[in-house]
Every structure is written in C-alpha cells, then in structure tokens.
Amino acid sequence: MQKHLQTLINLLTKNDLKALLQHYLDSNGAENIVQLGFMFQQGQIKSFDFYQQLATSFIENKGFSIGLIPKIKTNNTLNFFTPALQIEGNFSKTDHQKCNVLHYLFTNNQLVSSNHPPFNYVRSMMLFGSNEALRDGVCQRNQQNLTPIEAYLFANKNLTPLANHELTAFLALIEIERKQQEVDMANYSFVIQEVSELCQSQAQLTNYDLQRIMLIATYYITPIKQVFSDMS
After folding, report:
1. How many CA atoms lie within 13 A of 18 on its CB side?
2. Please, which residues have CB within 8 angstroms of residue 98's CB and are 6 or more apart in sequence?
3. With contact defined as beta carbons under 8 Å apart, do 126 and 86 qualify?
4. Residue ranges per structural domain of the chain
5. What is the pTM of this model?
6. Contact at 8 Å (CB) between 118 and 78?
7. What is the pLDDT of residues 145-202, one digit of tens each?
8. What burial letters (b/e) apply to 131-165, b meaning 16+ CB within 10 Å?
C-alpha cells in the first residue's frame, strides 16, 4: 500500500480530522485523487455521510483537482461528489480535453441496460438548487466541439431506451441548453456517422424503434425520417 494512503488510514483510525486535512493538503495532486477514491469506496461500504463530508471539506480547502473530473462518471460517484461539485463553480471546470464532469458522466460507456446517465438527477439539481455552474456546464463544448448532451448522442454505447423519467429529463436538458445557445448543426453529420458505426458494431438495426434516432432528431431539430435516411 502506498505510504500516503496508509497515513490517511492511520489518521482515520485516530479520527484526527485536523491532521487528516493537513495530510491531504501536503499530498500532491495524484495522491489526492487516490485518497478521494479511497474515501469514495469506503463511503459505499459504511458511514457515507462521514466520508462524503470529509472529501467535500478536503476539496473545499484545497480546491477541485482537475484529475478528479474524468473519475466522476457513474451515478454513485456523482452522488458522492455532488456537494464538492457545487462549490465555486466546479461543475463547469474542465480538463485538458475541455471536458467537464457532465461530458464524462453522459458518455460513460457501459452496455448494461440499467446503466444510463442520471439525467433526472442532473435536471433535479437545476430545478431545486442554485446551480449556475451546472447550467453553464450543460452548454460547454469539449475539444470535439460537443456539449455533454451531444457527447451522449455521439459516444454513449448503451443504445437501450432511456426509462420514461430519464427520457423526460433528457428532453428538458435539451431545452435548457437551447435557451442558452444555438445548436451547432455542423456536428450533425459527425454524430450521425459515429452512431451509425456504433449500431453496426452492435448489430443494432437502425429502424424507427431505435430511441437514439429520435433523440438526435429532437436535438438537431431534424425530421426523424431524415435522420433515419442519413444513417442508412
């Protein structure tokens, strides 16, 4: 076990919160990511609130590490780090690929049908909290010029339909983005080509029952018939 992590565990055993914070502050960025990962894992096993509050306190005192952005790509990691993300506009911070947390969260490539991005959770945060950074994050474009919603359409490999409540939330997020900026139609052909190749790789028929076609049509304000034709 790495020395910095062993020190963290020893201080946790002693419940020395002041020394824990100082140890985190003294550790480098890569070590901080490992330490936060450990606290997340422990929080999934026991004392969720304690480890969440501890991780949030660390991030609040030292700042949000850019290296943490690509780690938050599941419902559980989002739930754990949400308080930290709500500090100082962390939802809209980006990494070297100009991706924010939402880009990674929406493109998490798991083929298991139950593993869809938590669109409803994200939308709820916008409705019931003051989250300007989250609203800004929905509109940010990465190096590929894709917003998080476009990144989902483009790269998420799970082609199974979204549950009704997630679908409703996804459509609401499209409206939120649309109210703030225009859709970049230059990305349409880029997304269509990628999804067509994705369907071929999964032996997925590109018919009108494929929800992804409907979502692409909705986002780019293009008739479903045209999207279907462009993918054929």
Report:
1. 0
2. 140, 141, 142, 143
3. no
4. 1-63, 65-231
5. 0.92
6. yes
7. 999 999 999 999 999 999 999 999 999 999 999 999 999 999 999 999 999 999 998 8
8. bebbbebbbbbbeeebbbbbbbbbbbebbebbeee
